[in-house]
Specification:
six-stranded mixed beta sheet, globular, 12 helices
Length: 433
Amino acid sequence: MSNIVAIVGRPNVGKSTIYNRLIGERQAIIDDTSGVTRDRQYGLSEWNGKRFTVVDTGGFVRNSDDVFEAAIRDQVQIAIDEATVIVFMVDVSTGVTDLDGQVAQMLRKTDKPVFLVVNKVDNHTRLLEANEFWSLGFEDTYFVSSITGSGTGDLLDAVTEVMEAEEEEESDLPKFAIVGQPNVGKSSLTNALLGEDRNIVTDIAGTTRDSIHTKYTKFDKEFLLVDTAGIRKKSKVHENLEFYSVMRAIRAIEETDVCILMIDAQTGMEAQDMSIFRLAQRRNKGIVILVNKWDLVEKDTNTARDYEKELRKRIAPFSDVPVVFISALEKQRIFKAIEEAIRVYENRQRKIKTSKLNEIMLAAIESYPPPSHRGRYVKIKFVTQLPTYFPAFAFFCNNPKHVKENYRHYLENQLRKNFDFTGVPISVFFRKK
């Protein structure tokens, strides 16, 4: 079960600040200029043992001067369709505005949980002023100050209470999700693989809507294909497709074992592709990168090699990922892509015997021991693989807190060198012996 919390509201009410509070990092740019959020903002949060994705919808509103109201209405509609929980933000210093009223009117029609959050309530006077927001008619109303953090704990308690706990779905079949930006060729690939026009393919970005699970049983291979595709419900929907595709990608990533990330050969790995890549990495999903429309690129002898080298540089430090150059339209190398996805799935399931692990890793540690920290020597005595659904290893030592980040990378590289974990993020933990 994937939980998505969408933060909606008009510009400059503090959506980015509360977003940073919820995910625990300063990721969004915060400024007093309205509409400053331009980047796609989505990150992971965990509270009361529940993990969820937070989406700051402000990052998806463009051209702040003219289309703000329409864009915000689109955002709210998409949040209503896609999110598990909606956080509706308003600002006590301006009082209830017409735009707040319009957003409230839309949100009152949904049966999804809506939390009204009155921001900038940081003194007694503002606490009294905040009471006017009860007039918007939301039972779950919280007064917070996102800058100082007061009230955010109570809000998070309430938000996580209405969420279902995540369950690892039990299925013997591998699940592969095709993710990527709109119009990169996801539906064409699905249709090429299935040999039928399961999805409508057009040149309009974002024709696809619903996540479809399709069982693939050809050429002695069996798996579930989670296409972030589907058919658009309304013929004329003027909506923020980039935002929509992000919400879809998040859901698909949550439901899958291996993410097949498609990028356009002509535009390369863009910021949004990187965001999807990092999200899959943080969720410990397997990753395969497909460079689509390779037939349209002018080539010389070194083109693919140079392209791949640049791509790996861009995704570093996690660069041990299969890269396949394909043309979904011409059906070039699409089965190679599936073979790589199956290999990555198997790597993600890989379990290594403790004896073998210690034999190899303790030798690697002996040849390059961890550097001492403030005169304290770190001695690693034992290593074991943890019983998680992705590769995670615990190294037992005397001073776990003093192991440096670059040494963690060294150990991860040694694991990759000696065992096949291509396409899979590895977690390394240090525990007190």
